[in-house]
Amino acid sequence: MAFLDSFLIRAALGGVGVAVAAGPLGCFVVWRRMAYFGDATAHAAILGVALALALEAPIFGGVLVVALGMAATIATLAGRGAATDTLLGVMAHSGLATGLVAVSFLPNVRIDLMGFLLGDILAVTQTDLLLIWGGAAAVLGVLAWRWRALLTATLGADLAHAAGIDPDRERMVLMLCLALVVAVAIKVVGVLLIGALLLIPAATARRFARTPEAMAAGAIALGMVAALAGVWLSFRFDTPTGPSIVCVAAGLFAVASLPGIPVPSRS
């Protein structure tokens, strides 16, 4: 497809695809205070890269398997009463360190670690776009299907039980979606910055939204603006693309937080 021959077009579409998936999911990350969970899952993705290279399997598959395993492990340990913040810190740093060490043991394999750590969106291929947009569609489909149940479980476990909803199941649904976003976003912003792309647009949209649905739509829009502007700035000034995207998102958050910026009433 000639339209996709330009690496800038592919980069822009990749960034927008990740923003579409990360926006509404990031809202639940904000509401549930799960920011560290996103970091832990993303950091473990490097181990998935090493696993995929060792088995000569697709990178996406290795990252997804490890991210899902990390999500299930954290959910299981947290359910047994472990201190969540401590657990996430241990898992995040352990996963990243183990992955980096594992990569160093791979014989005759040369990889761009900076590309995996900070993203390499300008190298996104048409196959990568299929994975990114397919993952985004799957995440949006699951969130649309479970939206009311997820919102109810987010408000409180007691309310969820009263409504006949299993809050543990809904938490697992969120974790699985988060693992999928990590897998599709690794090439766009890298494992060190995926958490930022989940958190910052949602936190910015929260200031202006009256309803959960408006916040999710706002997070998508802000994420798309950050992705497109970040790609352009990276190309214009020869800066790392993943960090450029996050810097734009952070700038939008800073502007939205300025005193005097009008916000809607939530009465």
Structural class: mainly alpha
* Helical residue percent band: over 70%
CATH superfamily: ABC transporter involved in vitamin B12 uptake, BtuC
Query: What is the radius of gyration computed over CA atoms, rounded to a whole number of angstroms?
Result: 18 Å
Globular, elongated, flat, extended or rod-shaped: what is the shape?
globular
C-alpha end-to-end distance = 50 Å
User: Class in CATH?
Assistant: Mainly Alpha
The number of strands is: 0
Q: How large a portion of the residues is in β-strands, by DSSP E?
A: under 5%
Biggest sheet details: none
Number of helices: 12
What is the number of domains? 1
Which runs of at least 5 residues are low in confidence (pLDDT < 50)?
A: none
- Say what oligomer this is: single chain
What is the CATH architecture descriptor? Orthogonal Bundle
CATH topology: ABC transporter involved in vitamin B12 uptake, BtuC
SSE string: HHHHHHHHHHHH
Average per-residue pLDDT, rounded, comes to: 86
